[in-house]
Amino acid sequence: MSAGLEACDVPLAEAYDLALVDLDGVAYQGHLPIDHAAASLGTARDAGLQLLFVTNNASREPEEVSGQLTDLDIPTSPDEVMTAAQACASLLSTRLEPGARVLVVGGRGLVTAVREVGFEVVGSADDAPDAVAQGFAPELGWADLAEAAYAVAAGAWHVASNRDMSLPTARGFAPGNGALVAAVVAATGIEPDSAGKPSPTMYRLAVDRVGAERPLVIGDRLDTDLAGARAAGYAGLHVLTGVSSARDAVLAEPGLRPHFVGADLRSLLEPHEAPSREGGWWRCGDRAARVVDGRLELDDQGPAGIDVVRAACAAAWSAVDDGEQVAADSVPELTV
Question: Where do the GCN5-related N-acetyltransferase-like domain residues begin and end (predicted)?
Fold first, then answer.
């Protein structure tokens, strides 16, 4: 796939056979619904698109996630949820035999996932674990991280469910699993393997689970959801309802760029026009953008909206790919 925005002349829900949907920032916001999410996902399902919800959260059980989605009018069964805990357990299975000892530093979801694939869960580095599986749980403390460090330093394989440095909460962003993993790395000097996004492992496991041929990743974070899509070789839709903004998309480096950009999940039900170059301008719909002397310029005609975001992405990405630097202070916050 190219590193630019792509065209799709039919609704995305018709062009792809599986949507790998992120949770927080896409399907819901914390414990609250996101406008148009439930209705758009329902319409996409009715059109034949399979949905599989993929989350870097390793502390929750699939049944808990599916229950929350169902309560928000997105009917979901547990087998339509893929957690980073399940991906972590699957990654452990690539090197460890059933019955191997695993020190789990994380929540219930990770404990369950590790046990379900046949490993013995132990509680201390003194139990000589073969591996340490580390995932986020709000109750984790220094003693848990110390046990992980002792085990890794003694030779246990360190596998992180994900390395997200932050996670959204009702009060703002708090330290995520990546921050806790970093503490173990600082103590041991040993870098772990990671199962969650942006590693492609979880996406590929999800695709294999349903036998999909044309998967579409839908996410709000460029550094995890969309970077994972690029790493896996899958198309990615960036919706602007969560962490990464339209401005972030314009400034994204090639490995983080989405293939499609939409204001919200209604964009799953629409065709997508790819920007085209006309002279020095990149045009999409009624809007256009260009880069002159390293600075992004937008035309002053037409409405605000997603077309100006797409045009700006095309102009900035093209300039960067041609070896030019785009000044970050020339890229405004873009409203949709």
Answer: 284-329
Contact 275, 257 (CB under 8 A): no
Contact by Cβ (8 Å): 87, 39: no
Q: What is the pLDDT of residues 195-247, one digit of tens each?
A: 999 999 899 999 999 999 999 999 999 999 999 999 999 999 999 999 999 99
Please indicate whether residue 46 is annotated as part of the active site.
no
Catalytic residue among 9, 17, 22, 248: 22
Q: For the chain, list the domains and their CATH numbers.
A: 12-56+199-269 (3.40.50.1000), 85-194 (3.40.50.1000), 276-330 (no CATH)
Instruction: State pLDDT tens for residues 109-118.
Output: 999 999 999 9
For 45, the token pair is 């399902």
- The answer to whether residues 34 and 40 touch, using CB atoms and an 8 Å cutoff, is no
**Of residues 24, 130, 220, 307, which has the active-site annotation?**
24
Where does residue 171 rank: exposed (0-12), middle (13-18), buried (19+ CB within 10 A)?
exposed
Paired with 218 in beta bridges are 21, 237
Residue 79 binned pLDDT confidence (cut-offs 50, 70, 90): very high
